């Protein structure tokens, strides 16, 4: 039990700090700064190179390193969107009369280039890392990417609770694509699917030893946190308090989305 407790604490700290840093940077960095763009690009390249260098070396250190690097890489991908570097084909609010496929098409268009970036990077990491001795980075990235897609689809289809005060000012129009409503059929399906994968990874971790166990336990613990985050959308929990005080994130009144 002790190794699992250590893993959970480590993953929580990395997730909490990583989320807080992204929230802080998206509010403080200049979207128009060429230095910021090139710095993020250089850091992303360094992350990819580091994952490549650790892929054939499976130790406790290399597994933890790959996990942290993958979380960092995902943070850069998120910042590339919220700083306006890679977004979509338009920046228009959703017309009130839009529904169905038209509404989905408009929502996808608002972030399509960013989604293609995340997809391409994910496929590239899987192609390089999944057959290696240390696939921790690929599993970690997949958790962050797929659960973010799950969260976006749930927000699009409807959830009872969501705080929209974290959106940067230039992305206020994105609120019009979110829907406050009882959870849709997709919510239990997405949570159940994620839970089954988490259970499978926990079983694989428990049947492994040493660094091999971390390959599964690290992304499994992250997946559990992502499932809990999904619960925030269904329950009246002000999750922003987890970061507001330390990272000085914006403390605007909670915005509830209605359509």
Descriptive notes:
By secondary structure, the chain is an all-alpha fold. It has one domain. The chain is built from 9 helices and no strands. The protein has helices spanning about 1-30, 35-55, 60-80, 100-110, 110-130, 135-155, 185-205, 210-235, 240-245. Helix 1 (about 1-30) runs parallel beside helix 3 (about 60-80) and helix 1 crosses helix 9. It is globular and about 55 Å long. The chain starts with a helix and ends in a 12-residue tail after the last helix. The model is unreliable at about 250-259 (pLDDT under 50).
The whole-angstrom Rg is 18 Å
- The N- and C-terminal alpha carbons lie at a distance of 46 Å
Shape: globular
Assembly of the depicted chains: single chain
Sheet of most strands: none
Q: Would you tell me the overall average pLDDT?
A: 88
Helices, by number, come to: 9
Query: What structural class do you assign from the helix and strand content?
Result: mainly alpha
Regions with pLDDT < 50 over 5+ consecutive residues?
A: 251-259
Strand content: under 5%
The percent range for helix content is 55-70%
């Amino acid at each position: 039990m002790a190794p699992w407790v250590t893993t959970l604490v480590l993953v929580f700290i990395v997730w909490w700090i990583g989320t807080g840093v992204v929230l802080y940077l998206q509010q403080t960095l200049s979207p128009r700064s060429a230095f910021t763009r090139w710095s993020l690009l250089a850091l992303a390249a360094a992350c990819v190179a580091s994952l490549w260098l650790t892929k054939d070396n499976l130790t406790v250190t290399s597994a933890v390193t790959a996990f942290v690097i993958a979380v960092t890489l995902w943070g850069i991908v998120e910042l590339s969107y919220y700083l306006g570097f890679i977004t979509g084909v338009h920046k228009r609010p959703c017309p009130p009369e839009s529904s169905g496929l038209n509404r989905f098409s408009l929502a996808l268009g608002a972030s399509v280039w960013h989604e293609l970036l995340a997809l391409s990077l994910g496929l590239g990491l899987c192609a390089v890392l999944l057959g290696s001795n240390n696939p921790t980075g690929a599993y970690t990235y997949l958790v962050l990417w797929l659960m973010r897609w799950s969260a976006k689809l749930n927000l699009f289809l409807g959830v009872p609770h969501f705080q929209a005060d974290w959106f940067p000012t230039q992305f206020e129009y994105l609120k019009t694509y979110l829907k406050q409503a009882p959870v849709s059929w997709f919510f239990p399906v997405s949570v159940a699917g994620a839970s089954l994968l988490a259970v499978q990874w926990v079983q694989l971790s428990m049947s492994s030893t040493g660094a091999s166990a971390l390959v599964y336990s690290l992304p499994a613990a992250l997946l559990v946190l992502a499932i809990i985050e999904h619960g925030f959308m269904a329950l009246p929990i002000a999750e922003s308090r987890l970061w507001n005080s330390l990272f000085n994130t914006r403390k605007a009144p909670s915005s509830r989305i209605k359509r």
